[in-house]
Amino acid sequence: LFAGVAALDSSVSGKIGLRAVIYYFCTTVIAVILGIVLVVTIKPGVPQTASEIDRVGSTPEVSTVDAMLDLIRNMFPENLVQACFQQYKTKREKVEATTGLDKNGSTLTEEPVTTATTAEASEEYKIVGMYSDGINVLGLIVFCLVFGVVIGKMGEKGQVLVDFFNALNEATMRIVQIIMWYMPIGIVFLIAGKIIEVEDWEIFRKLGLYMATVLSGLAIHSTVILPLIYLIIVRKNPFRFAMGMAQALLTALMISSSSATLPVTFRCAEEKNFIDKRITRFVLPVGATINMDGTALYEAVAAVFIAQLNDLELDIGQIVTISVTATAASIGAAGVPQAGLVTMVIVLSAVGLPAEDVTLIIAVDWLLDRFRTMVNVLGDAFGTGIVEKLSKKELEQMD
């Protein structure tokens, strides 16, 4: 990202960034609409009720306000080294009010920082800021964008740093090339490990229609909608382009993280599909963070599915709310495994659905997560081809 931004003129990078964001937003909205149409048509939650499905795991404790504030905090990390390993996360801990006596013998009660009221009783919480394991991708991207623009404006003085990061990037790509040779062995063990962890295969039958709805949406989005957009704008064979991204898609399917797949995505886009490095290095890292078509589609389907399980009829306003919230939540979801479950709680809360019902779909999320990550990566890849086509004039002027 640093090398790509530094190689671009600041005005050019602004235009490229705007085109990429518009593409990301449009495809995400289309994915959400597709998911809503499918789940309303197929009705996977109508034949059964929530009580018929076993709950697995626990509900992620998260509030919309805390999630939004964490997003902003992570954009500006206080320690760049720490940002490579950890990200900031707000946690609410339930506290007991403690009592004591003052000097006059009166009873004192310590009040917690915040309070939260539930339907059953008033529960008291305190807000605790902490760091959790996971790369702060958003913070690193913001820093690299700013650093790249500044170094690019320094001209000759900043060329030493540009050359250094270009060489570092080239070395990383060569290491990735070596890893690709023995990656199939690792893939076998990753799949085997997940299969062994499955304790109740009956859950796949109970959630079969829900899984079919999600997978159908992902299939239509990745084989019809994205290729059609690419064909209309670029005027080239989208399926040949997708075949060039095969290694990246397989990697995404196995490790279920668009951020961890980035090195392979770079390699496929640049070496197999011959996309300009100035585009891939700028567009792909941003896309891995904010372009989550598969996640947005999944969250929309899951929210309506849970409403159907609870025998709740959603009106047009609630469906629109789900659509908007799923779009926004998917953008805020970091490119890490199962981030969709956390943002899922936000989507459910937005329309008054019980957040604890997210435990109904956790059992099959590990499988769906892999397929939606693959769609996310494919969307990022098509984005590089589309943005390159739209930015052809600016790139030629720079050459």
Automatic annotation (TrEMBL):
Its main location: membrane. It comes from the Eukaryota. Keywords: Amino-acid transport, Cell membrane, Chloride, Endosome, Glycoprotein, Membrane, Metal-binding, Phosphoprotein, Potassium, Sodium, Symport, Synapse, Synaptosome, Transmembrane, Transmembrane helix, Transport. One of its GO terms (molecular function) is glutamate:sodium symporter activity. The chain crosses the membrane at residues 20-42, 135-155, 175-196, 208-233, 245-269. InterPro entries: DAACS, Na-dicarboxylate_symporter, Na-dicarboxylate_symporter_CS, Na:dicarbo_symporter_sf. It catalyses: K(+)(in) + L-aspartate(out) + 3 Na(+)(out) + H(+)(out) = K(+)(out) + L-aspartate(in) + 3 Na(+)(in) + H(+)(in); K(+)(in) + L-glutamate(out) + 3 Na(+)(out) + H(+)(out) = K(+)(out) + L-glutamate(in) + 3 Na(+)(in) + H(+)(in); K(+)(in) + L-cysteine(out) + 3 Na(+)(out) + H(+)(out) = K(+)(out) + L-cysteine(in) + 3 Na(+)(in) + H(+)(in); D-aspartate(out) + K(+)(in) + 3 Na(+)(out) + H(+)(out) = D-aspartate(in) + K(+)(out) + 3 Na(+)(in) + H(+)(in). GO terms for cellular component: apical plasma membrane; early endosome membrane; late endosome membrane; neuron projection; recycling endosome membrane; synapse. It is found in: Apical cell membrane; Early endosome membrane; Late endosome membrane; Membrane. It is a multi-pass membrane protein. Belongs to the dicarboxylate/amino acid:cation symporter (DAACS) (TC 2.A.23) family. SLC1A1 subfamily. Sodium-dependent, high-affinity amino acid transporter that mediates the uptake of L-glutamate and also L-aspartate and D-aspartate. Can also transport L-cysteine. Functions as a symporter that transports one amino acid molecule together with two or three Na(+) ions and one proton, in parallel with the counter-transport of one K(+) ion. Mediates Cl(-) flux that is not coupled to amino acid transport; this avoids the accumulation of negative charges due to aspartate and Na(+) symport. Plays an important role in L-glutamate and L-aspartate reabsorption in renal tubuli. This is Amino acid transporter. It comes from Cariama cristata (Red-legged seriema).
